[in-house]
Write a structure and sequence with these properties.
heterotrimer, B: 268 residues, globular, C: 263 residues, mainly alpha
């Protein structure tokens, strides 16, 4: 069953040009208007139980899309159906069936305890007290927040806060959960925990999840499907396997050896930089394996090693390039 | 001299910045107009009830209204309600601990910053005040062109003294959570004893107390100077203004230095 | 479900807001006491005025005190329950309505009740303090309660109407702030001093006449049921208007073209 259907969705913003100095007085009353296409004719659909990520750099149109799906913004043109409802017209009805977490906008009252907050949100969603308490204790168990549930939110770490935000958005048992940049500003450990939780929600509670991020790491573990968006357009709508095969297949490996051992290039292993005993290598995981790479030197010689994926910006660049090549071919 | 250049450029930058909030100034001008309008209605009624053209406590209706227009104008230009809050917020938010390490004196920096805003406000509000006065009661009685410069000088001093007092109140935040409620009380005291009524309206035992207090330097003095000018009056006002400026600046710097130590030892 | 539920929500919000503020006990108490002191200063102002004249068009010192009490009381109620109403423009500019839009409750009620001013409690106390100073009869205290509640609703609803300007123009909230301060100014002076033009103004564009002058004149000084009903009627009309204007403005908010930066 399709829970979200989007057809030819577009959103334009009219901006007023800003003037400085003498220009400011000249254009005090008459300002030129600029139209920015934040979302430009996108279509996609989401099946029940799916976990879908919206990936793209800042200002790509991810948040705008989520805001349109939840009824905060009205689209300029196109059709949206979420759980069979039109978010623009049936916002309040829809809000009882979806949950939202905005990484940059807190819903919680920071001066109050998490528990106070949950009770309050329960009232907002008209959940009977008995049911609410049961729900809170269930969620507190899953999210492991029992030890700080009675502390003021402002005394919690960002990661703990985000957990509480998520619990608050799950109290009314939503069918779909929207996350806008949930991992923004979190440290790596907190990020990892949060990703695991999102995965758990999707797998164990069967909640459909749609979230945005500009961090490739977020999608690798959590999602089966990814939509990459840039300049308001969908660059790619594919499952994780394909994406990994085509774009995230290259790892950057930096090794620091104890002795000066020379490493030779092999098929699928390219030396980007070599300086004394330090090497920066690009490893194509489709051609070779990590085992092959590690076979190049003895484990005893290794002083330090770091492995990283290609940054999102580079991935998008290569998608652009592919798109162009396909056209010319 | 070079050290002073720095403060002059702070002044210039703040002055320029103030231009951006010109729309707010128009709203404040309307507010100003409304306040004066209410005063005019109230005092016309009081003067009217006791027979027209009469003098109450040495003030004709015309002089009374001009007094109120200028005392209110000083209140508006001095942005009294913001100073305590601003300083208090700087301290509470911990912003101050960053500014302490900059190569300028925070206290002097804030004076320059504020005087720039107030000067901009004065340039805007003095014509507005004069216009409103003409609309409601006509010209200033016994006006001479010679009084313009002394009046402006004393108004500038009044705005300065206003700031240094409220800044000192704001610095209570070094020791308590929130200084703004103290600011309210000071404002109300000033309004009651200076802004609303000229000196002559108070009981005789109270008059010398007000005369020797900063309230006279801020409100009663300059506003009386506009409504009923004389060189003797100007001399007495300017002496009181200069003395209070010196006293309160020294006091303010002392409070600032005490508070600064507290911030440094607490690490912000 | 609708009305009763939203009504309960108002109190739930207030409880939560006060719980939040009460965490800083000393500041909580200080704000209330300072506000009462602050208000008391104006009594001295009137003592000086009344040393010049015995009465202003039938308003003696006692009547002015009661007028002040009603004005402070209405102000207090509106700022205690609906402080958010005075900051709607700010909510609009900073995109803070987003969170409320993802919730199923009425957005205007949510926004209005989302914060409180502790000092407003001082204003409400002050209302009854000046009644005591004026030495009024017992039923005036009782009558004051519904009067300041209706007055507070009139004030808040009116400000909401003006704050919705922020949906359309950039400095809309500055204009609304100006209206709010004019209302507090006008409503503390005896209505007799105002000429006919300003009276028309005070009963239409900024209807603080209905907030304070009507109950003073037609409940306390004399009694006229039609004026009392008019006061209630104005409150109802303004509330309806506030909801309507907010709803229309919200459509513009949802178009996302307000500030430009809010993408």
């Amino acid at each position: 069953m399709k829970v979200i259907e989007v057809k030819n969705l577009s959103k334009d913003f009219k901006l007023k040009k800003k003037y400085k100095g003498k220009e400011f007085w000249k254009h005090l009353f008459k300002k030129e208007k600029i139209i920015k296409k934040a979302v430009n004719n996108i279509s996609f659909s989401v099946e029940e139980g799916e976990a879908l990520a919206f990936i793209g750099p800042n200002g790509a149109g991810k948040s705008t899309t989520i805001k349109m799906l939840t009824g905060i913004l009205y689209p300029t043109s196109g059709e949206i159906s979420v759980l069979g409802l039109n978010p623009t017209k049936e916002r309040a009805k829809l809000s009882r069936q979806i949950g939202t977490v905005f990484g940059q906008k807190e819903q919680l009252w920071v001066h109050l305890t998490a528990m106070d907050n949950f009770l309050f949100f329960g009232a907002i969603y008209d959940i009977p007290k008995k049911e609410l308490l049961k729900r809170i204790s269930e969620l507190a168990e899953i999210f492991e927040i029992n030890e700080f549930i009675n502390q003021p939110v402002k005394s919690l770490s960002l990661g703990q806060r985000m957990k509480c935000e998520m619990v608050a958005s799950l109290l009314h048992n939503p069918k779909i959960l929207f996350f806008d940049e949930p991992t923004i500003g979190l440290d790596p450990v907190a990020k990892e925990t949060l990703r695991m939780l999102i995965k758990k929600l999707n797998k164990e509670l069967g909640i459909t999840i749609l979230f945005t991020s500009h961090d490739v790491g977020d999608i690798e573990e959590v999602c089966k499907r990814v939509i990459i968006i840039n300049d308001g357009k969908i660059m790619l709508d594919d499952n994780m396997k394909n994406l990994k095969y085509h774009y995230l297949n290259k790892k950057i490996v930096e090794v620091n050896l104890i002795r000066d051992i020379s490493i030779k290039e092999k098929e699928g292993i390219k030396i980007l930089k070599a300086k004394n005993s330090m090497y920066k290598l690009e490893v194509d995981m489709n051609i070779t394996t990590m085992e092959q790479l590690l076979g190049l030197f003895k484990a005893d010689d290794l002083q330090d090693i770091s492995i990283s994926t290609t940054p999102l910006e580079d991935v998008i660049k290569s998608i652009y390039r592919r798109g162009k090549n396909e056209k010319t071919e | 001299m070079k050290r002073l250049n720095k403060y002059f450029s702070i002044y210039k930058t703040s002055f320029k910045q103030e231009k951006d909030s010109i729309v707010n100034y128009f709203f404040r001008a309307i507010n100003f107009f409304i306040i004066i309008f209410i005063f005019v209605q109230l005092w016309s009624y009081i003067y009217g009830e006791n027979g027209t053209n009469q003098i109450i406590n040495n003030y004709s209706l015309q002089q009374m209204i001009w007094y109120l227009i200028f005392s209110e104008m000083i209140y508006f230009s001095a942005r009294t309600s913001l100073i305590t809050k601003d300083i208090s917020n700087e301290i509470k938010s911990g912003n101050l601990s960053y500014k302490i390490n900059k190569p300028y004196n925070f206290y002097l920096y804030e004076i320059c910053n504020f005087m720039a805003k107030s000067c901009f406000a004065l340039i805007f509000f003095i014509p507005v005040a004069i216009l409103i006065g003409f609309i409601f009661v006509g010209s200033i009685p016994n006006f001479t062109w010679l009084q313009i410069l002394p009046c402006i000088i004393s108004i500038l001093f009044s705005v300065l003294i206003n700031w240094i007092i409220y800044a000192s109140v704001g610095m209570i935040s070094f020791w308590t959570q929130d200084a703004t409620p103290f600011g309210w009380i000071v404002t109300k005291l000033f309004m009651l004893l200076g802004l609303f009524f000229p000196l002559d309206f108070f009981p005789t035992w109270l008059q010398p107390i007000i005369f020797y207090s900063p309230i006279y330097s801020i409100f009663s003095g300059p506003a009386t100077l506009v409504a009923d000018f004389s060189w003797d009056l100007f001399a007495s006002i300017i002496i009181s203004q200069i003395s209070w400026s010196v006293i309160i600046i020294i006091l303010g710097l002392m409070i600032y230095n005490l508070g600064k130590k507290k911030v440094v030892s607490n690490g912000g | 479900m609708g009305v009763k539920n939203n009504f309960l929500l108002i109190f739930k919000y207030l409880k939560l807001n006060l719980k939040k503020e009460a965490q800083y006990k000393s500041s909580f108490v200080l704000q209330i006491i300072m506000m009462i002191l602050n208000d008391l200063f104006f009594i001295l102002q009137w003592i000086i005025v009344f040393s010049l004249t015995d009465s202003i068009g039938g308003y003696g010192f006692r009547e002015v005190l009661v007028l002040w009490g009603l004005s402070a009381g209405s102000y207090g109620i509106s700022h205690l329950f609906f402080y958010g109403a005075f900051n709607i423009g700010d909510f609009i500019y900073n995109g803070k309505l987003d969170v409320f839009l993802t919730q199923p409750k009425n957005i205007l009620i949510n926004v209005c009740c989302s914060s409180t001013s502790v000092a407003a409690i001082g204003d409400i106390f002050y209302c009854f303090i000046v009644f005591a100073i004026a030495g009024v009869t017992w039923w005036w205290y009782l009558a004051a309660i519904p009067i300041i509640i209706i007055g507070g609703i009139i004030f808040a609803a009116l400000i909401v109407c003006y704050q919705t300007l922020a949906f359309y123009v950039k400095k809309g909230n500055a204009f609304a702030d100006m209206v709010a301060s004019s209302i507090t100014l006008f409503s503390t002076y005896p209505p007799v001093i105002f000429d006919i033009v300003s009276k028309v103004f005070l009963y239409t564009i900024i209807p603080c006449g209905f907030m304070v002058f009507v109950p003073m004149q037609y409940i306390f000084l004399s009694f006229n049921i039609w004026w009392v009903l008019a006061m209630v009627g104005v409150a109802v009309v303004l509330v309806v208007l506030a909801f309507l204007l907010f709803k229309i403005g919200l459509k513009r908010y949802a178009s996302g073209n307000l500030m430009g930066g809010r993408i």
